[in-house]
Amino acid sequence: MKSMMTYTTVTSGAKAAVLGLALISLVNCSSSDDTTPAVTSGGSAALQGPLALVNNTGDKTLTSVALKGDSGNAVLGTIPSAEFENVALGDMQFSEGEWVFVNLGAANKVATIDPLTGAQPDHKTNLAAGTNPVHMNRDPTDGEVIWVGNDGDNATGSATPGDDLINCNNPTRVGGAVTGSSVTIIHNSHLGPGSNPPTVEKTLCLLASGHKVAAFPRPTATNASIPKRVFISSEIGGEIAVVDNEPASPTKWQMIGRVDLCNPLKETCNNESGTVLTAPFTPNTSGPHGIRFSKLTGKVYSFQEGYGQIVEVDPVTLAKTIVIDFDGTPYTSYGITPDGRFLLLRGQTTTPQATKLGVLNLSVTPPAKTDFTIPELDGTSPGTFKFSPDGKRFYILAGNAATSTKKDRLFAFDASTLTATPPALTLTKEIILNPGGDRAGFDGGHGIDVLAQGAGEAKYIAVSNRVGNSLSIINATDNLIKQTISVGPTPGGVLVYEPGAASAGNQATSSLTIPSKAKPSVSSDQLDDHGMPK
User: Fold this and answer.
1) CATH code at 13-526
2) Which of 66, 139, 146, 46 is nearest to 101 (CA)?
3) What digits encode the pLDDT tens for the residues 105-119?
4) Which helix or strand (DSSP H or E) is residue 501 part of?
């Protein structure tokens, strides 16, 4: 149910009239314009161009930078930490309603930001979520809906690890009091006159604990019978909850099934076929840490970190099949190409130190694995990677681990060669992010996002630099750093936003791996839009 509240902006009467007209044009603007937009400089104070939002981990602030092209990029402003209740900022996402959302894990809240009305993004309010919100996803069924994964209690030595202590403590529930963590569903409408502000529609408790990641199976061009559902994995519970996402369904946003990820070849498993939906499954050690939907195959792919396997799940029957076992390979995480054809595999070797990449071709049966040999990645540790929305560009950061001999690098690839036989990734540029070269012993890092326009073409790459407290703007055509802008202290995550980007599908897709309890390598402020450690 949509909220009947009306969103208002505090301005003077004359200014409000101008802003209202500007907002109407912004909300209805087409993102297919292939030119590089510019920030408004005329009579309206409203923002009309793309921007980068930078999470300054050093002081828990959020800096906005106007993206204007090869030059003229400039800081618009910084939202102070007090607006975020002085807690670390986590995952960031934007909606088709043009709102920006930021997880505030330690406050158990989600910050809402109006990125358009003023000359700089404006923090509005913090909405209550569940215990420790970490991940968030925009719903492809309704782009004005944001799903927030509440990972649950993460205190050291907790008696209720991975449980949502705010929303799921129900003594009448079958199986005990606190059982599992939850997802919070937020809805908003457009900005401007007659709009509704973001509101929490529902927090859904799932009977499984731990880190939450969501995928959204839905009808495809080749299979219109796939139902609209949300698949939500739980790390500690070792299962996937299946939530009805059909808009007109009487069970919309209710759990209608579960997939037990326990593998009897890895451990002793309970038969959960007779377990009712109101009772929890027996937890297992599969450790699901990543989940994706392929619009090519119409299947859901889940990475079991505990088993080192990727499982394919049929979203209709919920049957599961192991598609790859990582035993004997260097791979530890994965992503998916925008067309759903390939799973991009990412890992490393340590003797010698090197990042290793490969793909799993889902368009053939059984899926075929191709390992790439890329000498330029020798000496690096693996960092986050992103595809441009059209799938033609691929970017991966060097991870800057202490063991790396090559640091502070962004590698730009031509990904259109993945469709060759055999698949290939063609390196186009190795970009040195610090002019002084590699920093011996530096274990900082970089965040990355991509400005995409038109039919999903990469135009610019925004990379944060923890050393130097800056943001580098890179032209995606010649892969050269055009400008470096000072931001706040110790910048981490970056989110590139542009009006209309959500509705046009112009958001880069990223790798998908999550820091586990067993491997607490990063905090939530180090996660990108899909949970990849920076």
Assistant:
1) 2.130.10.10
2) 146
3) 999 999 999 999 999
4) helix 501-504
